[in-house]
Design brief:
This protein is α/β, with parallel strands linked by helices and about 325 residues long. It is about 45% helix and about 15% strand. The chain contains 11 helices and 12 strands. The chain has helices at about 5-25, 60-75, 90-105, 120-125, 155-170, 185-200, 215-230, 240-255, 270-280, 295-305, 325-330, and strands at about 50-55, 80-85, 105-110, 130-135, 150, 175-180, 205-210, 235-240, 265-270, 285-290, 315, 320. Helix 2 packs across helix 10, helix 3 packs parallel to helix 4 and helix 5 (about 155-170) packs across helix 6. It is elongated, with a radius of gyration of 28 Å. The chain starts with a helix and ends in a 6-residue tail after the last helix. The protein binds beta-D-fucofuranose.
């Protein structure tokens, strides 16, 4: 086919036109509309950060270890920490978050005492542009109300407690359970994980289950009640934390039976006092739960402030400790 000169020229012109219009789309936006790379915000460092931490309180040695970890990490990194002690009350934690918002801190960390009731205050933080990081415990809120979280897999801890107890008891037990703070993530999840494994052991029966609020005093009180009700029928105790187990050990001794022998005990946290109880033969196993979350928390906080990607949750690595090597391990424990 013969192509005329005119046709060639017009084809060329159309192609050129297309190119120019294309290149117009590719042209960078006017300088006034973009932030040139040179004026990009400089990355913040730990020393620039002001962080609020709305702690639950001081119910257990685990919690004391967590407070120490957050304070020490802040000090070491040069983060300015605003610390509030909620004294076990959600309303105090909420008030602390509101005061951090008023102070315009960069990030707020919170271990929610219970799972529910956080939506309003988390929305307030979001509206003020202050990211919330969950530490240790989960809150039951939509995903967009917190940026990330760090802590343990509590369901797995409950499963591990059941696994080690089933072994200790050869699959036959009348168990009483000291549950943690009602509606708290660790209590809900440990309760669930424990039962998940027990389903496979028809001889392992939970004969009573009540909250001891994660404290030694309550653990002792509720255990005494269990003993009054069920007497020597009780052959095993699962306590959602070591502190309640330590309180319960006192009640068991006062009742006149032997903790660790007549009643086998498994608890969670692996605080130093649990190792001492294992060495004394009064506790049979402790499932680890790591409170030393300060360094990870501030690392996440810095990433969030600098707009770097973070996972939705960072899980701690944990194990189970038995009396056999408690003596060797105790000196290495930091909480
Ligand atoms: O197991 C208990 C503490 O939230 C994981 O809280 C934490 C729990 C811990 O009081 O000892």
């Amino acid at each position: 086919m013969k192509v005329s000169k005119l046709a060639l020229w017009s084809a060329l012109l159309i192609a050129l036109g297309a190119l120019t219009s294309c290149s117009q789309f590719a042209l960078p936006a006017p300088a006034s509309q973009i932030t040139p790379a040179t004026s990009a915000k400089p990355k913040k460092t730990f020393k620039d950060l002001v962080v609020g931490y709305a702690q639950i309180g001081a119910e257990s040695d685990w919690r004391t270890g967590n407070t120490a970890s957050v304070k020490q990490a802040a000090e070491k990194l040069g983060v300015e920490l605003k610390f509030a002690d909620g004294q076990q009350k959600q309303e105090n934690q909420i008030a602390a978050i509101r005061s951090f918002i008023a102070m315009k801190v960069d990030v707020i960390g919170v271990p929610p005492v219970v799972e529910t009731g956080w939506e309003i205050v988390f929305k307030e933080a979001k509206a003020a542009g202050i990211p919330i990081i969950l530490v240790d415990r989960r809150a039951n809120v939509p995903d967009d109300l917190y940026v990330t979280g760090v802590g343990s897999d509590f369901v797995e801890e409950g499963r591990n407690a059941a696994r080690v107890m089933a072994k200790l008891m050869n699959g036959q037990a009348n168990i009483v359970e000291l549950v943690g703070t009602i509606d708290s993530a660790p209590a809900n999840d440990r309760y669930k994980g424990f039962r998940e494994i027990l389903k496979d052991y028809p001889g392992m029966r939970i004969i009573d289950s009540q909250s001891g609020d994660f404290t030694r005093a309550k653990g002792k009180e509720v255990m005494a009640e269990f003993l009054r009700k069920h007497g020597k029928n009780i052959t095993a105790l699962f306590a959602h934390n070591d502190d309640m187990a330590i309180g319960a050990i006192k009640a068991i001794e006062e009742y006149g039976v032997k903790p660790g022998e007549d009643i086998k005990i498994v608890s969670i946290d692996s605080i130093r006092a649990a190792f001492e109880a294992m060495i004394a033969g009064k506790l049979n196993a402790t499932v680890e739960c790591n409170p030393l979350l300060g360094p990870d928390f501030f690392e996440l906080a810095l990433k969030v402030v600098n707009g770097e990607p973070v996972p939705k949750w960072v899980y701690s690595k944990e194990s189970v400790f038995l009396p056999e090597n408690a003596k060797d391990i105790l000196p290495t424990r930091r909480y």
